[in-house]
Amino acid sequence: MSTGILLAIIIALVVVIVVATGAYLMARRRRLRERFGPEYERTVEESGSRRAAERDLSEREKRHDSLDIKPLESGVRDRYSREWTSVQGEFVDRPEDAVQDADLLVTSLMRDRGYPTEGYEQRLRDLSVEHGRTLGHYRDAHEINKLSMRHEATTEQLRGAMVHYRALFDELLSNGGQARHART
């Protein structure tokens, strides 16, 4: 085989490998963007590197896949609905307490669904895999709850916190963003 033909074959193989790698990376990026929603861009911004962010998001997926996330039985869902109604009713007379109780109720719901609840940052990471579109609500509610614990939150901020907690609560309660065991 002549050197020219051999060189042409090698160049063609390199081009095929580069194109295949590029297609794979683009497909991976698209899949991560779709799965994580706004959390994808937030992670890219925080990490300062798209590659580091995508590695982080992939690690989150692996951890999430190892968790035993499960839907709630209808009786448990009904109990949580009643508890939310009670917390919401508490808001009129004790808004700070209601926001703190909403935080506790969301954390309890997460635990019953199978999410570990060992720390706020880890909860964010675990929730981001299936609930990236409502995670901003959880972050906002958490920040207002911290203000509330120092008695620095306005009534309007506390009302907003309840709305934010409710967004994630409803999604978790309805099994929204259910764990996907098969990759798409």
Note the topology.
Blueprint: H1 3-36, H2 38-47, H3 50-66, H4 74-90, H5 95-113, H6 120-131, H7 135-149, H8 155-173
Helix pairs in contact: 1-2, 2-3, 3-6, 4-5, 5-7, 5-8, 7-8
Report on this model:
- This protein has 184 residues and is an all-alpha fold.
- It has two domains: 3-66; 74-173, no CATH class.
- The protein has eight helices and no strands.
- It has helices at 3-36, 38-47, 50-66, 74-90, 95-113, 120-131, 135-149, 155-173.
- Helix 3 packs across helix 6 (120-131).
- The chain is elongated.
- The chain starts with a helix and ends in an 11-residue tail after the last helix.
- The model is unreliable at 177-184 (pLDDT under 50).
Short description:
With 184 residues, the protein is an all-alpha fold. It contains eight helices and no strands. It is elongated and about 90 Å long.
Count of separate structural domains: 2
Largest sheet: none
Please tell me what the overall shape is. Answer: elongated
Computed over alpha carbons, the radius of gyration is: 22 Å
Low-confidence stretches: 177-184
Average of per-residue pLDDT values: 90
- Element pattern in H and E: HHHHHHHH
The count of strands amounts to 0
Measured distance between first and last alpha carbons? 44 Å
What fraction of the residues are assigned to beta strands by DSSP?
A: under 5%
The structure class reads: mainly alpha
Percent range for helical residues? Answer: over 70%
Number of helices: 8
